Amino acid sequence: MASRPDVSTIVEADPRVRAAAAELDAARFERQTFERLMTPPLTVGLDYGRTRTEIPIGAITGGPPGSALGANWLDRELTFNVSVPLPLFNRQLEPRALATGRILAAEARIRTVRADVRMELETTWSALEARRLVPARR
Questions:
Q1: Which residue in 8, 61, 85, 136 could disulfide with 40, CB within 3.0 to 4.6 Å?
Q2: Domain of 77, in residue numbers
Q3: Percentage above 70 pLDDT, the chain
Q4: What is the mean pLDDT of residues 7-31?
Q5: Is position 34 within any domain?
Q6: Three-state secondary structure along the chain?
Q7: What are the beta bridge partners of residue 50?
């Protein structure tokens, strides 16, 4: 009589189990996508500009010629800013809940498919062993 094969490796190689595992992976990736969408991105900016600066006439004091002085010039400005948004409102609630439900359904399906495949293999092996025990009639 032949020894009983390792059923777990055969079960994992079954196409139905592999399809259910792929469905579970797809549901997990969908959930990860919505988790990433919930996190707001960091914004970095750089701006260059020119500003005309003016000292109005009469702003300089200190004597009779100083009260009639004024000036204009151009300033070049380089502005760097960083914005870190705070996720005060939790967005993407419904899609994340649907993705979580899909994960739970896929996990249940893969368990069911594995059990069905294991049952089929065990039943077939038992039938084969029973057939070997019964002598052939001539």
A1: 85
A2: 42-84
A3: 85
A4: 94
A5: no
A6: CCCCCCHHHHHHHCHHHHHHHHHHHHHHHHHHHHHHHHCCCCEEEEEEEEEEEEECCCCCCCCCCHHHCCEEEEEEEEEEEEECCCCCCCCCHHHHHHHHHHHHHHHHHHHHHHHHHHHHHHHHHHHHHHHHHCCCCC
A7: 76
Are 129 and 94 contained in the same domain?
yes
- Diameter of the chain by CA atoms? 137
- Strand ranges for the chain from DSSP E: 43-55, 71-83
**CA atoms of 85 and 72, how far apart (whole Å):** 39
Q: Reply yes or no on whether the pLDDT at 1 is more than 70.
A: no
Tens digits of residue pLDDT in 39-98: 778 888 888 888 887 877 666 666 566 566 667 777 888 888 888 887 777 667 888 899
* Cα 102 versus chain centre, distance: 15
pTM check: above 0.70 = no
Of 99, 86, 91, the closest CA to residue 38 belongs to 91
Residue 69 shares a structural domain with residue 51 = yes
- 36 in any annotated domain: no
Q: Are 11 and 116 in contact (CB under 8 A)?
A: no
Domains of the chain: total: 2
